What we know:
Layout: E1 2-6, H1 11-22, E2 26-31, H2 38-48, E3 53-56, H3 62-74, E4 79-84, H4 91-96, H5 98-118, E5 123-129, H6 153-166, E6 171-177, E7 179-181, H7 200-208, E8 215-218, E9 230-231, E10 233-235, H8 236-249, E11 254-259, E12 265-266, H9 267-278, E13 284-287, H10 302-308, H11 316-332
Parallel strand pairs: 1-2, 1-4, 2-3, 4-5, 5-6, 6-11, 7-10, 8-13
Antiparallel strand pairs: 9-12
Helix pairs in contact: 1-2, 1-8, 3-5, 5-6, 7-11, 9-11
Bound molecules: nicotinamide-adenine-dinucleotide and uridine-diphosphate-N-acetylglucosamine.
Uridine-diphosphate-N-acetylglucosamine binds at residues 89-91, 129-131, 151, 179, 198-200, 203, 215-218, 229, 231, 267, 290, 293-294, 297.
Amino acid sequence: MTVLxxxxxxxxxxxxxxxxxxxxxxxxxxxNLSNSDVTMVESVVELSDHSIGFYEVDICDExxxxxxxxxxxxxxxxxxxxxxxxxxxxxxxxxxxxxLYHANNVGGTEALIKVMKSNGVEKLVFSSSCTVYxxxxxxxxxxxxxxxxxxxxxxxxxxxxxxMISKSGLTAAILRYFNPIGAHxxxxxxxxxxxxxxxxxxxxCQVVAGxxxxxxxxxxxxxxxxGSCIRDYLHVCDLADAHVAALENHSKSIRAYNxxxxxxxxxxxxxxxxxxxxxxxxxxxxxxxxxxxxxxIWANPSRAQAELKWTAKRTIKEALGxxxxxxxxxxxx
Length: 333
Ligand code: NAD
Ligand code: UD1
């Protein structure tokens, strides 16, 4: 079966391509390389020892997308399912460029749904985010929690895409990721941050690698045990496996699934765990809160466990060790 992976050159997409190939799927990637490099696709091929198709195409370009579906059919490998990662994901950039985020993320998803339907492809796995919940009132958060006011234009695009997919008539698994971290244990693929990383782990790794002076912990006065924010960090390879599980075990028309470990970890605990996993010291300073951050969120992942037969298996320590190995590989390139 051939699976189209939009955004497959990106961080989560590249790990998912490996997991798909290892599970016996043929993979075709569509990516406009706006936040990635084609070398990541080459590394996926090397790692999985299997060819994968690559089209440098913008998913907002309906005609170009249509020709990918036609080309695949004419080669006798028609696309039968889509795993849709392609999106812009920087929360801070989304405040500066809300229209671009809307056009790319919502417009791109709209074009994709149209082309899927015109080609009779019904199965979709969509990358959503726990950001759709805002700051939930009860923890851990389950899928029945209401969408609160989005914390950012980026979060709003995920809410809009989910609503659009719900009305699309497709068979769709909407995967709400908590905080993916780490890299493949081979250190051949990982996150390639372009510019200054916004996210905690790539920033922390660059600090430890000596590329930046210190990590600022955003806020030490939150109502949490140590005053820093709490998130549910999961290994990107566990997350990748969830996409395979969704393709294989999701049968209902539309269903949302939380993907997390079910455990919350504070920023200060992450720092301690990184030091413990790697033996490296993290230079850090306590600083002011970051605008738009929610205080704490972690998943109730029991629906994904029961229905997708998926559970996060790797530890945060393992993920942080893998992130550091990948950072060292990047520095040596
Ligand atoms: P990423 O930026 O590494 O990957 C996204 C890929 O999509 C990139 O390769 C980029 O070039 C491509 N892309 C963007 N717009 C495109 C377009 N119009 N046409 C074709 N390709 C396009 O990001 P990621 O971390 O791998 O995230 C993947 C998905 O998961 C995104 O939808 C993101 O919003 C979602 N998500 C990520 C996180 C996270 O913390 N990384 C958390 C929750 C949800
Ligand atoms: C956010 C979004 C998520 C989005 C992701 C990708 C929420 C709940 N989540 O995740 O949907 O897909 O960004 O961009 O909105 N931190 C520091 N110092 C740093 C960097 C981060 O202390 O230099 C802290 C943050 O305050 C936060 C934690 O580390 O508490 C994790 O931050 P980050 O990695 O940016 O992820 P989120 O903000 O949770």
